[in-house]
Amino acid sequence: MNYLYFWYIQILSKYNIPKIFGDITFPILPFCIVAAAIIVAVLFLVLAERKILGLFTQRKGPNRVGIWGIMQTVADAIKLLCKQNVDPRGADKILYNVAPILVFVPAMILWGIIPYSSEFVFMNFSVSALLYISIAALPVIGIILAGYSSNNKFSVIGAIRSGAQIICYELPMMFVLLSIVLISSSMNLKDIIFSQLGSFSILNWHIFPCFLGFIIMFISILAELNRCPFDLPEAESELVAGYNTEYSGMRFALFFLAEYATMFVMCAFLAILFFGGFLPVTGKYISEMIFSDNQFLQLFIYIEQVIWLMIKTILLVFIVMLVRATLPRLGSKELMKFSWYVLLPLSMLNFILIAIIKFIVDGGAI
Amino acid sequence: MKNSSVKINIGPQHPSTHGVLRLIAELDGEEILSIEPVVGYLHRGIEKMAESRSYLQYLPIVDRVDYLGGFFTSYAYCDAVEHLLNLEVPKRADYIRMLCMELNRIASHQLWLGTFMLDLGASSPLFYCFRDREEILSLFEELTGQRMMYNYFTFGGVRFDVTNEWLSKVSDFVSRMPKAINDYEKIITLNPIFTQRTVEKGILSPAIALQYSVTGPNLRASAVELDFRKNMPYAAYNDVDFVIAESNRCDSYGRYLVRIQEMKTSLDIIKQAVLYLKNDSSDYTLNINPVNIKVPEGEYTSYVESSRGLLSCYIKSDGSGKPYRVKWRTGSYYAVQVLPEIVKGLYYNDLIAIFGSLDVIMPEVDR
Amino acid sequence: MIDVSILKEKFNFNIADNKVIVESNIIDVLEYLKNTPEYKFDILTSVAAVDLKDKIELIYQLYSTGNNFTLNVSVIAENSFAKSVIDVYKSAYFDECEIYDMFGVKFEGNTNLKRLFMPESWIGHPMLKSYELKDERLVWNEK
């Protein structure tokens, strides 16, 4: 971030604009970048999901708008923007309008916490991992409000399910995060990434000591995203569309955007915790190999780091979509049982195991 | 608040009621206290229509009783009329009819499987099923000119003869189909989520099934071996070898297993029928003029094992050119009735899964 | 086929046209047919009503899974009144509702009798031969 900041201040000073002005206006820049990135990522993800699901089910997927159906999501977005916003009779007007925003804003904040490269971090806190987890749980408030305020019984059931689901799956997730924090001795996401840097390259990733944790985390994240097989809150065949049954037009689009934005950022989070985030798979940065003595080498490395993170994230997103194409939906009773009887004990076990390993590796020093 | 139950209205426009069934459910949280099915949104008066049409004019309409199994209803009607007319249908026609009905059974079960899995939240099996169902529909289209409302059987036989070319296409399909069924089974049968949602869910005990007159695969999944193809053989079922698919699990999973097994059984029958038809060149129809036929006074009930249970057609004739009364008995009609009995105390999403497993389609219920 | 001569003595049946015509209490007959081991008609496949212009005939179609035979039991609904058999065969509930809806036969003992297919506000019973469609656009088929 400093790199960008200095670059920005330099440009301003060229035109004799005071530094204080730069300090105030600088946060607008990351905001714009994040907003643009979310839009692009969601457009890409929606198209990718439809294409991939098409591939799995031997269909073509969207292929009418633009070459290879590339403009399909753009057309969908325009359609959603132009649609009428319907207020259902008896709905709580204020809550009904606020709910989509409450779902969308946390998704956007999450994008700001992720370290895209070693310099490119918008919000660098010492406890950013904890902050991330807590903000990731926020959309459920919006979902519950949406269900409650819609004056629709299907929506209410969806909202209740969503609340129950979040409580069930937040706990195992916290335990896994705790074990990661234990390994890397830090709650800062950037430090967690750097703790995976070592002489063994890939083998230093946290996935290896913490494979069980990764599985638990992956399942919990699916549940938190309301993705298949945990899509009970919006189970189409049961609840019509769950909590967003009554929403239309732009308000629905916000739910939709938030869902895909969160999906992407959650996969990025997984990549950071377990797959070394922006660290290269090759052990050494490729740009370092190619431009060994270039004045822009540092910049190239930053860009390369972003690319590495994106590759890892996209692979994880692909797995999420693969799961959707394969599995049916869990029942609400089974969902609870699975969390309390299977995931939670396993995540505790994982935590204890990691603690023991850490104790032995560190030579008994506490 | 003492009474915490919520009344929720599912349907008639709901994604998983397979048409236009309306269920009034009383829920406590997600637990079902009671449900009440409301039918009649697809009532077309098919029984009343018969009384103002000649026997031939009514023939195309019977396909609409069950739009996923047009051949079954066609057969039931033709069989009843032929009995009243004292017609002996040629062997070849019987075989052709049997072949069509079994293909239709596979297509119907495939659609059931796809939509059932969609009810459970899995979208891929739907497309696999539709991919293979498409082949059957193309075969039907080639034979009858229609993909859904075939109007192919006629009094005393069938409308057109099957060609050897068509028969070899059928045997091609039959040879491909086991692999496709294997595909479905791979993705579904041992899937832990699928088994969790179906095993021990929606238990339909044999006593309740008989009490509610549930027939077909649903009854066979409840350990009662009743298949009208075996028990009261019609068409050419007497001449072919097949085993009745049966399960004693009594739950949704058993109903799934029975239907998968039934697809394989149908393939066996089709194989034998194709073999017979290839080596046979007799007449495929009696060539009677069906226009303005006068049916002698009397009444007859035909019993047909359709893909959704016992299908029977009761015809009373008063000697004129129009049926005096036609009564359809369909499998789904009774499967809807048994639903409130088997979902009590289960969860809301189990209701959808169990309803899906019963294979109810609404045109059959409402007629 | 099935030997119904014992039944004939017991309940005083007339046998005609492959069906037994019952004049006494239909519930007793069905209960007897269902519970006697040599018949054991455990499925009531359907109930068909036929409008005979001056009276309505109800045909109970029975099937025995153990013995594999069918039997049609016919009873006349006097003055559009009949006894409900839902205590013997639960599956008769929809059938009785449908017959009430279409023929106007009221079933004594069926406490929850309602129109099954037609809306509650519908006037008349459509399957009766005497039923007339008032809208002339709908009777194009009758010349």
Give a summary of the structure in a few sentences.
The complex is a heterotrimer of chains A (366), B (367) and C (143). With 367 residues, chain B is α+β, with helices and mostly antiparallel strands. Chain B contains 14 helices and eight strands.
In terms of topology, how is this protein built?
The complex is a heterotrimer of chains A (366), B (367) and C (143).
Chain A: H1 2-14, H2 19-25, H3 28-56, H4 72-82, H5 93-113, H6 128-136, H7 139-149, H8 153-184, H9 189-194, H10 211-224, H11 236-239, H12 249-274, H13 286-290, H14 297-326, H15 332-361
Helix pairs in contact in A: 3-12, 3-14, 4-12, 5-6, 5-7, 5-12, 7-8, 8-10, 8-15, 10-12, 12-14
Chain B: E1 6-10, E2 22-28, E3 31-38, H1 46-50, H2 55-62, H3 70-85, H4 91-119, H5 124-144, E4 153-154, E5 157-158, H6 164-188, H7 192-198, H8 206-211, H9 217-220, H10 228-231, H11 252-278, E6 298-306, E7 309-317, E8 323-329, H12 331-343, H13 348-357, H14 362-366
Antiparallel strand pairs in B: 1-2, 2-3, 4-5, 6-7, 7-8
Helix pairs in contact in B: 2-3, 3-4, 4-5, 4-11, 4-13, 5-6, 6-11, 12-13
Chain C: H1 5-11, E1 14-16, E2 19-22, H2 26-35, E3 43-51, E4 56-64, E5 69-77, E6 81-83, H3 92-103, E7 106-108
Jot down its keywords.
A: mainly alpha, 2 domains, globular, B: 367 residues, Cytochrome-c3 Hydrogenase, chain B, three-stranded antiparallel sheet, 8 strands
Commentary on this structure:
The complex is a heterotrimer of chains A (366), B (367) and C (143). With 366 residues, chain A is mainly α. Chain A has two domains: 1-82, no CATH class; 88-361, no CATH class. In chain A, 68% of the residues lie in helices and 0% in strands. In chain A, α5 (93-113) packs antiparallel against α7, α8 runs antiparallel to α10 and α10 (211-224) packs antiparallel against α12. The two termini of chain A are 35 Å apart. A three-stranded antiparallel beta sheet of chain B has the order 1-2-3. A three-stranded antiparallel beta sheet of chain B has the order 6-7-8. In chain B, strands 4-5 form a two-stranded antiparallel sheet. Helix content of chain B is 49%, strand content 13%. The longest helix of chain B is centred in the first third of the chain and has 29 residues, at 91-119. With 367 residues, chain B is an alpha+beta fold. In chain B, β2 (22-28) and β3 form a beta hairpin. Chain B contains 14 helices and eight strands. Chain C is an alpha/beta fold. In chain C, strands 1-2-5-4-3 form a five-stranded mixed beta sheet. The mean pLDDT of chain C is 78. The chains are: A mainly alpha (366), B alpha+beta (367), C alpha/beta (143). Chains in contact: A-B, B-C. Chains B and C meet through β6, β7, β8 and α12 of B and β3, β4 and α3 of C.
